[in-house]
Automatic annotation (TrEMBL):
<comment type="pathway">
    <text>Cofactor biosynthesis; thiamine diphosphate biosynthesis; thiamine phosphate from 4-amino-2-methyl-5-diphosphomethylpyrimidine and 4-methyl-5-(2-phosphoethyl)-thiazole: step 1/1.</text>
</comment>
<feature type="domain" description="Thiamine phosphate synthase/TenI">
    <location>
        <begin position="16"/>
        <end position="197"/>
    </location>
</feature>
<feature type="binding site">
    <location>
        <begin position="46"/>
        <end position="50"/>
    </location>
    <ligand>
        <name>4-amino-2-methyl-5-(diphosphooxymethyl)pyrimidine</name>
    </ligand>
</feature>
<feature type="binding site">
    <location>
        <begin position="144"/>
        <end position="146"/>
    </location>
    <ligand>
        <name>2-[(2R,5Z)-2-carboxy-4-methylthiazol-5(2H)-ylidene]ethyl phosphate</name>
    </ligand>
</feature>
<comment type="similarity">
    <text>Belongs to the thiamine-phosphate synthase family.</text>
</comment>
<dbReference type="GO" id="GO:0009229">
    <property type="term" value="P:thiamine diphosphate biosynthetic process"/>
</dbReference>
<dbReference type="InterPro" id="IPR036206">
    <property type="entry name" value="ThiamineP_synth_sf"/>
</dbReference>
<dbReference type="InterPro" id="IPR034291">
    <property type="entry name" value="TMP_synthase"/>
</dbReference>
<dbReference type="GO" id="GO:0004789">
    <property type="term" value="F:thiamine-phosphate diphosphorylase activity"/>
</dbReference>
<feature type="binding site">
    <location>
        <position position="147"/>
    </location>
    <ligand>
        <name>4-amino-2-methyl-5-(diphosphooxymethyl)pyrimidine</name>
    </ligand>
</feature>
<dbReference type="GO" id="GO:0000287">
    <property type="term" value="F:magnesium ion binding"/>
</dbReference>
<feature type="binding site">
    <location>
        <position position="78"/>
    </location>
    <ligand>
        <name>4-amino-2-methyl-5-(diphosphooxymethyl)pyrimidine</name>
    </ligand>
</feature>
<dbReference type="GO" id="GO:0009228">
    <property type="term" value="P:thiamine biosynthetic process"/>
</dbReference>
<keyword id="KW-0460">Magnesium</keyword>
<feature type="binding site">
    <location>
        <position position="79"/>
    </location>
    <ligand>
        <name>Mg(2+)</name>
    </ligand>
</feature>
<dbReference type="InterPro" id="IPR022998">
    <property type="entry name" value="ThiamineP_synth_TenI"/>
</dbReference>
<keyword id="KW-0479">Metal-binding</keyword>
Length: 224
């Protein structure tokens, strides 16, 4: 995701969207983020901190946001539109029980990225798209240990969405280099991952490279 809206991203038909681990120490995480972003193509970083104070989130944004933005990678905050505006993030991601899309848009303005979780629902995605969301996120596609996922999405949903709609779609939930091909070929514009990068046995750079290579291979395989 070049700095700007996901729909303006050009280099590939499907790109990586990194979501941070739910708990992190910003100073310790900064070199890992740098390593990940310098190792390959990443469109977007979402700071997703759970059970943290607003001040903890501010501190993490202040340290991590420049690492992404200096590399033309969009920096999106999960759940907190006001903090996203205050700290200079490129946008916010909101779920169905978070600040409603319209309120998030009012807080952040028209130039910001506002993405919306739509679980496995065509209806929620159409509502979000009609309201003006910059992307819709579907999931979980695979079992995930990162959070308790109450919904299960199928690749067919991505195919249906991407054939009918212009609004980009993000796939999330248990995605790895080994299982991502059906999501790429079904039309996901972005693959959002936590564990496949931050939990990669050889480190985050290897995680990014493996996912970049898997996306490229899937795109090449579906082109022929
Ligand atoms: C890209 C992306 N997709 C989905 C989510 C999940 O959002 P939500 O349902 O609000 O759950 P939490 O992440 O807040 O626990 C996401 N964060 N990012
Ligand atoms: C944050 C999040 N949202 C999901 C959803 O289904 O909406 S799944 C998920 C966790 C994604 O982490 P991992 O790549 O480690 O499975
Ligand atoms: Mg949320």
């Amino acid at each position: 995701m070049a700095k700007g809206k996901p729909s303006q991203a050009e280099p590939a038909a499907c790109r990586l969207y990194l979501v941070t681990p739910p708990a992190l120490e910003p100073a310790a995480f900064a070199p890992l983020l740098t390593e990940a972003l310098d190792s390959g193509d990443v469109a977007c970083v979402q700071l997703r901190l759970k059970d943290c104070s607003d001040d903890d989130i501010r501190r993490a944004c202040d340290l991590l946001r420049p690492i992404a933005q200096e590399r033309e990678v969009a920096f999106i905050l999960n759940d907190h539109p006001r903090l996203a505006r205050e700290t200079g993030c490129d946008g916010v991601h909101v779920g169905q029980t978070d600040t409603p899309y319209r309120d998030a848009r009012k807080i952040l303005g028209n130039d910001a990225i506002v993405g919306v979780t739509c679980h496995d629902s065509r209806h929620l995605a159409m509502l979000a798209g009609e309201e003006g969301a910059d992307y819709v996120a579907f999931g979980a596609f695979f079992p995930t240990a990162t959070k308790t996922a109450e919904y299960q999405a199928e690749p067919e949903l991505l195919r249906w969405w991407s054939e009918l709609m212009e609004v980009p779609c993000v796939a999330i939930g248990g995605i790895t280099a080994d299982n991502c091909a059906p999501l790429v070929t079904a039309g996901a514009d972005f693959l959002a991952v936590v564990n496949a990068v931050w939990g990669h046995a050889q480190g985050p750079a290897a995680g990014v490279r493996a996912l970049n290579a898997a996306i490229e291979a899937a795109l090449a395989g579906s082109a022929g």
